[in-house]
Design brief:
The chain is mainly alpha-helical and about 110 residues long. About 55% of the residues lie in helices and about 5% in strands.
Length: about 110
C-alpha cells in the first residue's frame, strides 16, 4: 500500500491500518505487544480520531486499487475511456477526503 503524506506540522506518515500497530515492532513481540500498543493508541480522543482516519483511508486505498475487480458497478458496460474518467473522479474524491483528515492526498497506484 502507499502512504498518505500529512501536511505540516503533523508530519507523520500513515500507511494502512496494520502498519500503525506493527510499525517498529519485532515479529517476536507477538500478539500481546500488539494489544498493548492498541490500548495505548486508544487512550486519547486525538489518537482515536487518527486511528479512525487511518482505517478510513485504508478503505479508500482498497477502493482505489480494486474498484474494477469488486464490481462496484458493472464495469463491463463502460468503455475504456469511461473507466479512465471514473478512475480520475474516484481519485479526486479520495484526495478530497484525505485533505479533510490533514493528508496531502489519498493513496494511488
Amino acid at each position: 500500500m502507499g502512504h498518505y503524506p500529512r501536511r505540516a506540522p503533523q508530519a507523520r506518515l500513515a500507511a494502512h491500518a496494520v502498519t500503525r500497530y506493527c510499525g517498529g515492532m519485532a515479529d517476536d513481540e507477538g500478539h500481546e505487544a500488539l494489544l498493548a500498543k492498541a490500548r495505548e493508541d486508544h487512550r486519547t480522543p486525538t489518537s482515536q480520531k487518527r486511528r479512525a482516519q487511518d482505517i478510513l483511508l485504508h478503505g479508500i486505498a482498497v477502493a482505489l486499487g480494486y474498484w474494477t475487480e469488486q464490481n462496484y458497478f458493472d464495469v463491463a458496460v463502460l468503455t475504456e475511456k469511461q473507466q479512465d474518467e471514473f478512475s480520475r473522479i474516484l481519485q479526486q474524491q479520495a484526495d478530497r477526503v484525505a485533505r479533510l483528515f490533514g493528508y496531502e492526498n489519498a493513496w494511488s497506484a
